[in-house]
Structure formats: structure tokens, C-alpha cells
Write a structure and sequence with these properties.
Blueprint lengths: L6 H17 L5 H10 L18 H13 L6 H16 L2 H13 L4 E4 L15 E5 L2 E12 L6 E9 L6 E9 L5 E5 L10 E11 L4 E2 L6 H36 L1 E2 L2 E2 L4 H29 L3 H30 L11 H12 L4 H12 L7
Parallel strand pairs: 1-4
Antiparallel strand pairs: 2-3, 3-7, 4-5, 5-8, 6-7, 9-10
Helix pairs in contact: 1-3, 3-6, 4-5, 4-6, 6-7, 6-8, 7-8, 8-9, 8-10
């Protein structure tokens, strides 16, 4: 894989950085989303035949990282074009592609993604949202929690389970559920985390869906699910790296300018070295993220799964440490609204927790990569 970004990637990074700088930390989500769409950034990973840029997750991760580094990350980019757009592009019917991909690319429609459940935690095999046939239709019943942006999404791609007619065992399937579907209700969750995108609990009470709401092959199971989850991990890494870079840039500027005892505080190694280490950790995380994106875009789903998990782990750890060090560098000023760092203390933790905890990633690596026995 290339270790140096192409000229096209460098140009994309510079252009998105300029966009982010224009909007800044006090950005309006709708205005930024609209402008990013008009410039072709939202659909950069989607097929050109359906209005996208014809790139991949590598390009989309650059967009999200640079917006985050400018202080204006768009969380729904992780969900709408990366997860939902990718799944529909790879496995959707022609009608689904025609209906959704151009609209996701130009920003006129968005889609949320619903997988997490109250009792399943990180165990996707315990998902209880089930779908069964009723004539030509499907009936979907279950609950979801911590689902981002449902209030602004035109539909939610719901992960449910259907019964395999041959074995009787449940297998995951994906359904497009319109926001106004009968029996589909949402309740905003009371979050301490303040973000432009809200979190919701969803209830699906015998939601009737037509046959064409099913995305892909009913028997494909985990293949289709992980086609969306690997990009989610890569994009979460981009989100975290961008956030960490923003915090670090604030700290560096402050350490250069803040003078105590006749010298800038950045001249002291107790300040300089932790900031340098934070920069190194973020750069290393980005390398793994780029590797994961390259493998995914090349169609190597197995290798991409390992790299995507590692990238998400590394980026989450680097982000938390960068934000913590940035706040510490500014001292009391790091907790003021003026510098915009205090809110990142909570936000940075999300990169360690979602969409999969660092402990589950360590389980994945120990089992899948190192071949160690499972503890559960």
C-alpha cells in the first residue's frame, strides 16, 4: 500500500481544511452539511454512476478528519455515506441505489444506522430485533438505543434478524425503515455529551415493510453487516484523529504564546514533550487508518476488519490523550468556553467506547490475530 498520500489526496485534504476553517468551531451543522455536499465531499466514496465521486473510504476519511481538525466534525458522515451508502452501493438493488445514493451524495437526504440494543451491548449475536414475513411484507419488532441523528434522517438502516429456513437459526439482515413508518417511534436520550447530532432510543412495534425494504440477500448475514461496520470503525478513527488534532493545535498555539517567567511555556520540556508525544500518537493512528481504508477499498474485507479495529483503537487512545494534554497545557483556560476544549473531554471518550469498546477490540486481536483462546 502507498505510505505517502497522492497529490489528489493532498489536494482534497487542503480543500476540506479550507472549508472547515471557514466554518470553525461555532459551525452550523446544516450549513456545513449543505456546502460539503455541493462541493462533492459527502458522496466522495459513492459510485460516480449514482452521483458520487467514485472514490472510497480513504477519501471520505480525509474529509471527516480535516473537518474535525478544523473543529467542525460531522458525525453523520460516519453513518449516512460511510455505513449506509456503502452497504447500499455494495448490496442494494438497482431501485435502492437509484433512490438513495444520489440523494445521500448531494446531501438532500440522510440515513441513520440502528444496530445497538439495550441488552445486546457489543454482542451482535444477541440482537433481538426480529423480522418475519407476513405475506409479501416484513414485520419488524425490537428496540435500539444510542442511534445518532434519527430526527434529521429520512430513514434508518436497521439491523434485525431473520430465521434461516434451513437451520432455524437467526441471522442478521438489514432493512430500510422510513422515518414516518407506522409503529416506528423515537425518544431522545438525555445525554451529558453536547453535540450537533442527538441520540435516540427507537421502538419498532410490528413495523410493516415492503419486500423491497430488505437490503441485499436475506442469506448473506454477517457479510453485509460487516461491509458497513468496517467503514464505521475507519471513520470513527478519522473522527477521533481530527478531534485530537484540533485539541493539539489549540494547545500548541497557547504554549507558543503563553509566557510565564519571561519565556513561553512551550519552551519547557514538561509541556513540549507530552505535546510532541500526542502528535506522534495521532500520526501513527492515521497510518493505521490509511492502511485500513486502503485494504477496504481494495476489497480485502478480512484484512480490513483487523486493520479497521486496530485503527479505531489507536485513534481513540491517541485522541483521549491529546485532548487531556491540551486541556492540561491551558490549565484553567482549558476549561473555558473560549478555547472550546472542555467539551472535548467528554466527546473524546466516545472514540474509546463507540462503535465498539477498546476491550472488545483487544478481544478481537487476541482471538483473530494472535490465535489465543476465547474467554467468553
Amino acid at each position: 500500500m502507498p505510505t505517502i498520500e497522492t497529490d489528489e489526496h493532498k489536494s482534497l485534504r487542503e480543500a476540506v481544511a479550507a472549508l472547515g476553517k471557514r466554518h470553525g468551531r461555532d459551525f452550523n451543522r446544516e450549513e456545513l452539511w449543505s456546502e460539503a455536499a455541493k462541493l462533492g465531499y459527502l458522496g466522495v466514496n459513492l459510485p460516480e454512476a449514482y452521483g458520487g465521486g467514485g472514490g472510497g473510504i480513504a477519501e471520505l476519511s480525509i474529509v471527516l478528519e480535516e473537518l474535525g481538525a478544523a473543529g467542525c466534525p460531522l458525525l453523520m458522515m460516519v453513518v449516512s455515506p460511510a455505513i449506509c451508502g456503502t452497504v447500499i452501493a455494495r448490496f442494494g438493488t438497482e431501485a435502492q441505489k437509484q433512490e438513495w445514493l444520489p440523494a445521500l451524495a448531494d446531501g438532500t437526504r440522510t440515513m441513520a444506522f440502528g444496530i445497538t440494543e439495550p441488552d445486546a451491548g457489543s454482542n451482535s449475536h444477541r440482537i433481538t430485533t426480529t423480522a418475519h414475513r407476513d405475506g409479501a411484507d416484513w414485520l419488524l419488532t425490537g428496540r435500539k438505543v444510542f442511534i445518532s441523528g434519527v430526527d434529521i434522517a429520512d430513514a434508518t438502516l436497521i439491523v434485525g434478524r431473520t430465521e434461516d429456513s434451513r437451520t432455524g437459526r437467526l441471522k442478521p439482515c438489514l432493512f430500510i425503515v422510513p422515518r414516518d413508518a407506522a409503529g416506528f417511534t423515537r425518544r431522545q436520550m438525555d445525554m451529558e455529551l453536547q453535540a450537533a447530532e442527538k441520540q435516540f432510543e427507537l421502538t419498532l412495534d410490528d413495523v410493516r415493510l415492503p419486500a423491497e425494504a430488505l437490503v441485499g440477500d436475506e442469506d448473506a448475514g454477517l457479510l453485509q453487516l460487516f461491509a458497513g461496520l468496517n467503514p464505521e470503525r475507519i471513520m470513527t478513527a478519522a473522527f477521533a484523529i481530527g478531534m485530537g488534532r484540533y485539541a493539539l493545535s489549540q494547545a500548541i498555539t497557547y504554549a507558543r504564546d503563553r509566557t510565564v517567567w519571561n519565556t513561553p511555556i512551550g519552551a519547557h520540556q514538561a509541556i513540549a514533550h507530552p505535546l510532541a508525544q500526542a502528535h506522534i500518537d495521532l500520526e501513527l493512528a492515521r497510518l493505521m487508518m490509511q492502511k485500513a481504508a486502503h485494504l477496504y477499498d481494495a476489497g480485502d474485507d478480512v484484512a480490513a476488519g483487523e486493520a479497521a479495529n486496530m485503527a479505531k483503537y489507536a485513534a481513540g487512545e491517541a485522541c483521549v490523550k491529546a485532548v487531556d494534554q491540551a486541556v492540561h497545557t491551558l490549565g484553567g483556560n482549558g476549561l473555558t468556553r473560549e478555547f472550546g476544549l472542555a467539551s472535548l473531554i467528554t466527546a473524546a471518550r466516545v472514540a474509546r467506547i463507540a462503535p465498539v469498546s477498546r476491550e472488545m477490540i483487544l478481544n478481537y486481536v487476541s482471538h483473530q490475530t494472535l490465535g489465543l483462546p476465547k474467554s467468553y
